[in-house]
Specification:
Blueprint: H1 3-96, H2 103-118, H3 123-168, H4 192-203, E1 209-212, E2 216-217, E3 220-221, E4 224-227, E5 231-234, H5 243-261, H6 263-268, H7 270-276, H8 280-290, H9 298-308
Parallel strand pairs: 1-5
Antiparallel strand pairs: 2-3, 4-5
Helix pairs in contact: 1-3, 2-3, 4-5, 5-8, 8-9
Length: 314
Amino acid sequence: MSRTIRRVLAVASAAALLLGGAALERRDALVTDIRAHDAQTAALAGRIASEERTGVELASALAEQRARVELGDTLLAAREPFLAAVAEFGAALESAQGRVDATTQVQLVTGAQHAVLAERERPGAIAEATETVTAAAGTLRAEVQAHEEEQRRLAEAAAAAAASARGRGPSGGAGPGARSGAASTPSVGGDAVARGRGALAQLGGGHIAVRAYDGNCQGRYADACSYSSGYIAVAPAIADYSQGRLLWAMAHEFAHQVQFGVWAPLQRSETFGALFGGNVESLANCMAAARGYGSCSGAQLDFANAVWGRRVPH
């Protein structure tokens, strides 16, 4: 082999070695780059997963917050008619001053106010409280109206008695029955309390206490008055009632005692409002009729009988 050929082969071998080494270096650099990219990809995937979890948590927290805000808005909206009902009750309470006893209604409204102030979850509970306050206002207005009507009857009876006395001369007189707005009844004698107890016992209410009083029934005169503390008061005029009139009066007051026992559902009853206009006096008259004293019929009589049984139709 000539020297020239050997030189060419040597140069070629050296070139091959140089090229091979360069290729190895590029391969190592490529592997290193791939590993770096893999590490970056893994880190990025971890960050994405973490951010996705955070996003889900944030979305859940946001939905919960929105729900709370919506509930708060609903509760506020429910309070508006409640406040309006309280204002109406305030007006009814003012008109009742000096006329009727509003203690029971005030207690109902106060309880409703406390319930609304404490309510944080149920708009329906506020609506129920609104119904309670509205019913209490209606009851007060009805009682005031009944009081005014009774005062008018008393005034008319007094005027009629005075006219009769003038017509009859010094020996005339209206008689004790005029105080209740009805015609005089023959005196049957006896003690008012004893007669009241006897009549109540005959009606099935012998367990109810009967006490004497001067006729001042919550700011107005009445021969008999029923109290929510559990007794019936009678004025001396009761002693002069005929037996039929006495039984009607005691049945009426006995009915009030039964009403006190179902007062809350009675005030919530839509049927009570529809049939009696929320007037407990009208209901007591019908309940007396259900016992045979007075006139009442149809759906009103059915409702009265249900209340006697301590059931209040909704």
